[in-house]
User: Which sequence fits this backbone?
């Protein structure tokens, strides 16, 4: 078969598994693709069992989440689509295994299987998998990507230890076709691979990222991965992401193409579903972060993987520092020159917190006639902020994409430090429109209103900051500014209590 004969993913002998993003609209949309979607994976109730990977939406009602999960299972089953429950936390309490018979997890799983019809689960721990399989032999188990199966030995270990149906292979194997073939031939298990992950296969942050993400609350940012591509964009050729045009190389060895997206909007998920189902000639780097959040030379902003690069990467040893082939290919394909490397120096300096050098290199870059986009303006603005040159910070941040809430928040902080309190409040109110519930914004709003003499508004905002979360751990500062507001209103005794 030639590439053009691969009209859909079914011609490759593959199907999709899609992340549930806690938006019921997605389930309805996926029914249109029932022929191509094998399954959907959903988070477990984090009050019972934490989950690794992308953070689920904060607005989820966990007290009623089991009902929602049951609805998802039933609706998908009508279309012949399976549901996989994620049990892939890398830092769960070991007492769950030792005391499984009396654990809340056992009660939860039995309810999901017996009452809601759950048929499949994704799991990280062999001991836990053994206990669950003994208790619920009808529940099919697949090994999670967080188990780090990156060799035939590890795959066999799992296969010997637990009655598993399949393995989601480690990102480290994404472009190691020979190793995947060996695992497939020797185990005959159903193999899956995450195709739209931007992670670096040798990421030193992988384990801590998974651990942080298995706690309720904010997950560890993926910007650590992005910073690599900011500084060495040619590393994108080695990332775990597999563009649809390269799926043909996995024919016969990969059964399921998994798509990340538990924090993505429905439209983003469906766009990727369509691409991986029907657009098998696409080399586009579909991505979830808005383009304005990336430097102008970033691979995802440029948008395409060069033809032929995949065939080179699958046979290399990843020794990028001494090889240089990917860098050379990048320079030839994307037209990189001295200006771009000078821009990279700016970001390198910021990454090392050498803000003085960053602004010096910026002036040199500006003089060379290099492209200055909103991302760079924001980066230099934050550098001036760290140098406490707030007017210069304001000047640059004001020229960046103010549609991003974090920029409005940082701009508001700079306005406050510059003594421009009204403008600070305006920016913080704008940031709050996008980030309702962020206690730091309430704090700065309260401080801004106090400085403007609008004490009642200041007190309301500071109270909201106290209520919204203890994550800031700066309750003392909040009470101090509440005291100033009360003092401004002439309520001396109340102010003393706050101080």
Assistant:
């Amino acid at each position: 078969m030639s590439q053009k004969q691969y009209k859909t993913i079914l011609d490759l002998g593959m199907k999709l598994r899609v992340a549930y993003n806690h938006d019921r609209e997605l389930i309805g949309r996926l029914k249109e693709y029932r022929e191509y979607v094998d399954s959907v994976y959903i988070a477990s109730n984090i009050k019972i069992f934490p989950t690794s990977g992308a953070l689920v939406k904060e607005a989820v009602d966990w007290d009623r989440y089991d009902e929602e999960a049951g609805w998802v299972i039933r609706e998908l089953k009508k279309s012949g689509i399976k549901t996989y429950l994620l049990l892939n936390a890398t830092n769960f309490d070991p007492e769950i295994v030792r005391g499984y018979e009396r654990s809340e997890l056992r009660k939860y799983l039995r309810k999901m299987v017996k009452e809601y019809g759950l048929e499949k689960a994704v799991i990280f721990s062999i001991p836990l998998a053994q206990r669950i399989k003994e208790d619920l032999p009808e529940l099919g188990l697949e090994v999670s990507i967080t188990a780090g199966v990156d060799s035939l030995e590890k795959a066999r270990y799992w296969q010997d230890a637990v009655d598993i149906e399949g393995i989601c292979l480690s990102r480290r194997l994404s472009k190691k076709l020979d190793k995947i073939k060996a695992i497939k031939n020797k185990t005959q298990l159903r193999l899956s691979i995450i195709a739209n992950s931007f992670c670096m296969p040798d990421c030193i942050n992988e384990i801590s990222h998974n651990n942080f993400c298995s706690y309720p609350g904010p997950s560890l940012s993926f910007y650590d991965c992005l910073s690599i591509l900011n500084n060495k964009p040619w590393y994108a050729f080695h990332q775990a992401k597999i563009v649809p045009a390269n799926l043909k190389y996995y024919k016969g060895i990969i059964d399921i193409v998994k798509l990340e997206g538990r924090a993505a909007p429905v439209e983003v998920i469906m766009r990727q579903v369509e691409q991986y189902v029907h657009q098998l000639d696409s080399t586009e780097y579909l991505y979830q972060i808005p383009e304005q959040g990336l430097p102008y030379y970033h691979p995802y902003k440029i948008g395409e993987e060069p033809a032929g690069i995949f065939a080179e990467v699958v046979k290399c040893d990843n020794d990028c520092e001494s090889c240089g082939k990917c860098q050379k290919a990048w320079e030839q394909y994307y037209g990189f020159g001295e200006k771009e490397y000078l821009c990279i120096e700016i970001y390198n300096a910021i990454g090392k917190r050498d803000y003085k050098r960053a602004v010096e290199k910026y002036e040199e870059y500006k003089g060379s006639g290099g492209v200055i986009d909103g991302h760079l303006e924001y980066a230099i603005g934050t550098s001036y902020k760290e140098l406490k040159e707030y007017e210069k910070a304001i000047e640059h941040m004001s020229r960046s994409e103010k549609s991003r809430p974090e920029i409005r928040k940082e701009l508001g902080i700079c306005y406050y430090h510059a003594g421009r309190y009204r403008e600070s409040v305006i920016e913080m109110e704008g940031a709050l429109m996008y980030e309702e519930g962020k206690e730091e914004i309430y704090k700065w709003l309260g401080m801004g209103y106090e400085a403007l003499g609008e004490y009642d508004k200041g007190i309301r905002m500071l109270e909201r900051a106290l209520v919204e979360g203890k994550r800031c751990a700066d309750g003392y500062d909040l009470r101090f500014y509440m005291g100033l507001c009360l003092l401004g209103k002439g309520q001396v005794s109340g102010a003393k209590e706050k101080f």
